[in-house]
C-alpha cells in the first residue's frame, strides 16, 4: 500500500469560533493529493480519483499515528505543534485597581 505522496501527521489547531480546548489533543494523519483535481465535464464540479486524500485519521498520541503509518507502509512527515503561550488569568477588578499602569479609556 505504498504511495507516491507523503502523509502529514500533525495536531490540528482549535477552531477560531470557540475558546474551548476540546479536541485539541488529538493527532491527525492526512494524505496529500496523489493526482491533481480536475473539472468534471458533466457537472462542472472539481474532483479526483484519489480517495485516500479524503481520509483524516485521528489518533490519541503521536506514537500511534507514526506506528499506523509505518505498519501500512505510508511515507509520512511529522509536524510538531508550536508551544502554546501561557494563559495569564485576568479579573474584571483589575480594570479598577489602584496603581494601574495604563489610563482608563472608553
UniProtKB/TrEMBL annotation:
Q: Which Pfam families match?
A: NDUS4 (PF04800)
**CC per GO annotation:** membrane
The record's keywords, sorted A to Z, are: Electron transport, Membrane, Respiratory chain, Transit peptide, Transport
Q: Record's InterPro entries?
A: NADH_UbQ_FeS_4_mit-like (IPR006885), NDUFS4-like_sf (IPR038532)
Primary location class: membrane
Its annotated compartments are: Membrane
Say which domain of life the source belongs to: Bacteria
Q: What is this protein called?
A: ETC complex I subunit
* Gene Ontology biological process: electron transport chain
Amino acid at each position: 500500500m505504498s504511495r507516491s505522496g507523503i502523509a502529514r501527521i500533525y495536531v490540528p489547531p482549535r477552531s477560531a469560533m470557540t475558546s474551548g480546548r476540546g479536541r485539541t489533543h488529538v493527532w491527525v494523519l492526512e494524505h496529500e493529493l496523489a493526482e491533481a483535481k480536475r473539472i468534471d465535464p458533466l457537472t462542472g464540479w472539481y474532483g479526483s480519483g484519489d480517495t485516500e486524500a479524503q481520509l483524516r485519521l485521528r489518533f490519541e498520541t503521536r506514537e500511534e499515528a507514526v506506528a499506523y503509518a509505518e505498519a501500512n507502509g505510508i511515507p509520512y512527515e511529522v509536524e510538531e505543534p508550536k508551544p502554546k503561550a501561557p494563559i495569564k488569568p485576568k479579573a474584571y477588578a483589575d480594570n479598577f485597581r489602584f496603581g494601574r499602569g495604563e489610563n482608563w479609556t472608553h
